[in-house]
Specification:
Elements lengths: L2 H20 L3 H16 L3 E7 L5 E8 L3 H6 L2 E2 L4 H8 L3 E3 L6 H7 L7 E9 L2 E10 L7 H30 L2 E2 L4 E2 L1 H18 L3 E8 L5 H5 L1 H16 L7 E6 L2 E6 L4 H17 L11 E8 L6 H17 L5 E5 L8 E4 L1
Length: 347
Amino acid sequence: MTSLKSEECLNFVSEILSLLKSTNQHEEVLHLIVDRIVRMYRCQSCAVVVVDQETEYLNIALGYGLSHTFSKAFRRKLATGAIGKLLWTGAPILIVDSEADPQQAEEVKLENPFGSALCVQITADHRTIGYLHVDAKGKHVFTAEDVRVLQSFADFAAVAIHKSQLFEANLRLDRIDHETNLEKYAPFLERIHASIERSRTLHESFGLMILDVDNFKHVAPTYGYDSSRKLLKQMADLITSRLRNVDAAGRYGFDEFVVLRANSDLVEAVLFADELRGAVERSMFTSREIRTSVSVGVAVYPRHAATIDALLLAVKQALFEAQRSGRNKVAHFVEEKPEESAGLLHD
């Protein structure tokens, strides 16, 4: 590698590290890695090939010099030849002249024949993620010195992919929606399941309600994005400030909140829902002093439903009625009786 290329490589490394520190999304980092490799080596093809952990097939995560059709259709089994050895042991593949070893060249080839190629392993935490492939039309483009350089780029790709995987895993494990500090909907569903089991054991009832912010879609265009997010946070704080220790609140949708009112019958649940509605109506949110309201749907277990799916459906039907009847309303589900159809009442 010439001194000029070495200086260029250091600049590229600095760029990649800077991006790697600032993002949890690996795609942008991989794009930068591939682009810089292509610039350095003027290669014909460059690809990040990854192992699908579920199927154990190889797929192309990102490629340069490859057709979209080829990249999309590419699906190879983990082989026992040179690629398999690379993936299992980390032994790099350096082909300086494809004509000198046509069998290995054919195994390594992606879409187009090449004169020389280099493949290095992508691994993190002792687990193989895939490999980095580069090839060129000319012979003797890659040398043993380039193995170290390309391995460094492959290591950056490994860190980017691994960091992204950890970030996604943490999001799934994190129970809190940090925009509102309320429980995320998925773990809140577990809470509803637990409340149903408790209700069956202790013969208690509980109320479930969904609050939808009326006309929220107009807040951001009118007051700005930051104000709309602050409004949601302050409204979440308002709701939680009125909960008992046995109650719970979560984020149901973008501008919707779900509240579980423990050990509550229909009358008490509706009264509490209206208390929340009134508190929102009387409040001013953010420094812009934004006024808004909420529509609330209420249902009670086991009065209105025998399962969690039926309970959520009852709440959503009640919410729809609250919105249909003019917003800033509380509506509760009315159970179906043999002599009449199911209905909804609003207060």
